[in-house]
Amino acid sequence: MKEGEAKGKGKGKGSESAGRFAAYAGAVRRRLREGGLGPAPVLLALAVTWAVFQSLNDRFLSPRNLSVLSVDIVGTGMVAVGIVFVLLIGEIDLSVGSLAGLAGAVFAALHVNLGMTEWFAVIIAVVCGTAIGAVHGFLFARFGVPAFVVTLAGLLTWSGLMIYLLGPDSSIHFAEGGLVATLTSRYFSAPVFTYGLAALCTAVYLLVSLRDRGRRAAAGMPCRPVGEIWARTGLLAVVAFTTVSVLGRFEGLPLALLIFLGFIVASDLVLRRTPYGRRVLALGGGVEAARRAGVDVTRVRISVFMVSGTLAAVGGLFVASRFTSASQVSGSGMLLINAIAAAVIGGTSLFGGRGSTWSALLGVLIIQSIASGMALLGVETAVQFMITGGVLVTAVIIDSLGRRTAASRVRT
Asked: Which among 156, 160, 169 has a CA at the least distance from the CA of 113?
């Protein structure tokens, strides 16, 4: 009798596991039918881009070029992460480029011209970005002024203020050994640290994934199979250790890249695992539906513009760090265009409700890889713009087709 009961319990557990696996597989198939291909198209595009440029110039995937690339993506990537938050609610922020330039100008003016310590100058520059984002969000959320108009006015206003702060020389240089300059010039080369960090990140991902699976399984919710978790962990380990190995052959692991990845992970956790993140995604799915669900639409709208302004300021400091000076280049229109293009090319929908902060990383990698490859080949900048524009249009078309497919399935 006891043996029969044990067999029954074993069969019950097996049927429960099979049911959860079937539910998870069904959810995956449903996302694929609705056009939710995830990062697969972007990763394929990145692989093709790297393969093409490597075939044309064998220096493209050299440790030196990849190290430069890993630092060059940070300034634009930070701005793109902020843009993702705004795009998720179906809006746009055209002021991020000028805000990035203004942050660099504020820092340089306070530190170089007025003699303020770097830490205080950095904090004030970032707070300025947050405050300006709050103003944009307030005008949009409270007065109903379209975000396009508000942020376009901001683009002009803050560009003018940046030019005023920079003075007649249009640039302010600061010390190469200072705090801001170190952001893009510091590298970690000790194998104990770099490989240990790669191992730690892989282990943390595995433990968190297994814990989440256990919680979902205990609640009777669809969950990833253990095999898939191990496969993802293995892929992450390959990427992490390969990155550390390749970059270690030049100067080491850049501090700028570590900070950038830290911001991406933190913002992704905020969007996926906090009530605030769920409110942002809900608002992108539909304003009226979110309001009826109890979401404070006004507060969420203001907050995403504050996030965008803050990260634009942080990105501006990284751009200034790259040049060890604040200039009009830091707030150029190309920074705005590349940041928006990176978010969209990486997979964030222009229509709201779909995307992640990892989109910023993938998108900016593609854009900067094109720029780097073109520079190695000696191709004109105009051609780079045309290719980037074509990639952006392709990403938008894929997004539009995915949404149309999802809408047609809902109607039927």
From this structure: 169
In the chain, where the domains are located: 1-33, 36-187+253-411, 190-250
Q: pTM above 0.70?
A: yes
Token pair of 28, please? 């995956």
Q: What is the per-residue DSSP string for 369-384?
A: HHHHHHHHHT--HHHH
Torsion sign (Cα): 340, 344, 349, 354: negative
Residues 191 and 263: beta-carbon distance below 8 Å: no
Question: Residues near 403 by Cβ (< 8 Å), separated by ≥ 6?
Answer: 35, 349, 351
Question: CB neighbours of 42 closer than 8 A, spacing ≥ 6?
Answer: 345, 346, 347, 359, 362, 363, 366
Phi, psi dihedrals of residue 325, rounded to the nearest 5°: -165, 155
- 228-266 residues labelled b (16+ CB within 10 A) or e (exposed): ebeeebeebbeebeebbeebbebbbbbbbbbbbeebbee
The string of pLDDT tens digits covering residues 86-139 is 999 999 999 999 999 999 999 999 999 999 999 999 999 999 999 999 999 999
State in words which class domain 36-187+253-411 has. mainly alpha
Between CA 355 and CA 307 the distance in angstroms is 16
DSSP annotation of 173: E
Show the tokens assigned to 217.
Answer: 């399984």
What DSSP state is assigned to residue 1? -
Number of CB atoms found within 10 A of residue 142's CB: 11
Of 315, 336, 311, whose CA–CA distance to 184 is shortest?
Answer: 315
